[in-house]
């Protein structure tokens, strides 16, 4: 068995790996326009450089979560990072657009490693230290986008899209080396067989859900087709639940997911994810809207990326503070408080967005709320989850969060599209206010769900 690294080496390794996979998966966001120009493809096609990474991440996460519960967790981590590095190489090589999409799909698989990093922390660190590290891993998996966005945008402006993706290749190779040197073997006495049938059905269902969330044109132009696919997705999810309940080695312990604390936490994650990603999308899009629209600041991709700096900084600060506050305040109350903070960010954006300082303030408030929410969430779920199921339970929460993010992005697009008049390229300024009010509604649901969790008796693990 591989010797256990000391905590001071293991902790930075886990956080670095979680940050890298999150940042690399988000590289598609600032590069969509550059990809469309460089590869001579429509913007809708270039958008798939982001969508395909989210899809592969959502599909890989529950499978990796189950592998992380077994004896081969270290091998699963190294193999996954090797896939991410290979995908990063495909994005850098002078190959056709289809190969770029394949590379982005391989990079997205790395998103499933976040839950495995949490499992390692819970198994190999003292309880209190492990809880703090798990909270921090959850936070960096969110703020990674804020780190990768401006760097990728700057490299794209200086050296083109290949240079920006070259950053991804460098950091993923470093993450693989770090994992090889630092990640220990899983504790002995565990077994985890992957439910192949359940994995295939869940992958198909998630593919449809995230596809429908991202294809706004399908809903506006072919409503019957979109509704039919939505029904198929629901049927597949129901079939998957039946397979998991009847299987001897389920991909996800559905019975455990029905625990009120876990179910409530996942519902709060879903509604909160919709709101959090909605505001992130609104602010970045508003900042890049040219002055000719009657509002906006006409920022370049790199300058718009700098608007995310307060999001990352204050998100990290909240992630550091939350574990200390949690010794005095219950996790569900922290979730509720964080949701209120995010709602305050929506209110600030709705009421004041005439200068860049106000956008920076709204983004900072959002980051602080998201950081607190992300840091508190693992504690709520893991309080009723056995150690051996850490990776599996958190992987489900990640999938729920991903679907919420996708729906939040789609909701923002639908509201802004509805507010765009005939013959206009940009929506009316009031459409942003409408979208902000919708976000406040999503955060109100998150707050009420979290308060309902707080009113329950403390659950026993």
TrEMBL record:
Coiled-coil intervals: none
Pfam families in alphabetical order: MFS_1
GO terms of molecular function: transmembrane transporter activity
One Gene Ontology term, aspect cellular component: plasma membrane
Localization in the cell: Cell membrane
Sequence ranges assigned to domain Major facilitator superfamily (MFS) profile in this UniProt record: 6-458
Major subcellular site: membrane
Transmembrane segments: 48-69, 76-99, 105-121, 133-156, 162-180, 192-213, 219-243, 264-283, 295-317, 329-353, 359-384, 396-419, 431-454
Key words, A-Z: Membrane, Transmembrane, Transmembrane helix, Transport
InterPro entries: MFS, MFS_dom, MFS_trans_sf
Presence of keyword Disulfide bond: no
KW Oxidoreductase (keyword) present: no
Cross-referenced SUPFAM superfamilies: MFS general substrate transporter
PANTHER family from the UniProt entry: MAJOR FACILITATOR SUPERFAMILY MULTIDRUG TRANSPORTER MFSC
Name this protein carries in UniProt: MFS transporter
Lineage: Bacteria, Bacillati, Actinomycetota, Actinomycetes, Streptosporangiales
